[in-house]
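User: Can you help me understand a structure? I only have the sequence.
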Amino acid sequence: MFYILDGRARVLAGEEIVTLEAGDVASVPPLTPHAFAAAPGCTADLLIIVAPGIQRFEYFRLLDRLRKGEATLEELLASQDLYDNHFLNSPAWTRDRQAS
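Assistant: Let's start by predicting it. Here is the structure, written out as tokens:
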């Protein structure tokens, strides 16, 4: 579940992409491919609720290090099994991100 604290975000659930603003919530059904990012030209602060819970704190810290250039894409890809976060190809998400 994604709750937007501030800003605007785009969320992919399956093939559907929605734009959310502060106060909005999106729930993604289990086993549904999903993605999220700040909307183009915006920032976004999100509260993410994952159930069932597994320790993903280090995953988000790794994402931040990647953003800062302190980690590599290879490190992120190598962490997929550890954090049960598997990267898939989504033509809908790719088109949306390229249109931004």
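Now, to help you interpret it: The mean pLDDT is 93. Helices lie at 57-67, 73-78, 80-83, 91-99. Let me know which part you'd like to focus on.
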